[in-house]
Amino acid sequence: MASPRQNHIPRGSRVSSGAAKSPREVLPEPENVADPTRPRQITDYTMQRRAALLGLVRGGFQDDICDADPMLLRTAKYHGEPTERDCPVCRRTRLTHLTYTFGAEMGELSGRVRSKKELEGLAHEFGAFRVYVVEVCRDCHWNHLVISYVLGDGNPRALPRRRGRA
């Protein structure tokens, strides 16, 4: 009777195969963009905001309506941009907007809060990145995604290499 085939690789050894290599990310096709600072692929969250506020009016106070993370509140305090709109929940405080940018081309810069002034420069520097605007009330902790959109000049850049950790 033939014995089953046994693997003779010592434990703890590295074995490389073609499948172990990380797949190379494919860059998106270039797109024709007349104005890189003009938002495109816009998603407006007004209807979800209205539904959340209507649920608050109909069902009383809900913990998940005013549940801003402490980090979000701190970010709003130091990096937020004040608005002229009052909070729809407590009506005591003006809302603060936070503008986050995310994109593969941005590398380690992805996920940071930006001012509206910075977006114009970034739109010329990167091919495409998504912008998310969140409104926050620092008093009652109301927070809601307002809008998201894409900016960029449409010319994909090579993805940045990750920096080594010290």
Molecular structure report:
This protein is an alpha+beta fold. The protein has a domain at 33-50 and 63-151. The chain has three helices and six strands, in the order βααβββαββ. It has helices spanning 46-59, 70-79, 116-125; strands at 40-44, 81-86, 94-102, 112-114, 129-136, 143-151. Strands 1, 2, 3, 4, 5 and 6 form a six-stranded antiparallel sheet that branches. Strand 2 and strand 3 (94-102) form a beta hairpin. The chain starts with 39 loop residues before the first strand and ends in a 15-residue tail after the last strand.
Task: Supply database-style keywords.
166 residues; alpha+beta; six-stranded antiparallel sheet; 6 strands; elongated
Question: What are the SSEs and their pairings?
Answer:
Layout: E1 40-44, H1 46-59, H2 70-79, E2 81-86, E3 94-102, E4 112-114, H3 116-125, E5 129-136, E6 143-151
Antiparallel strand pairs: 1-6, 2-3, 3-4, 3-5, 5-6
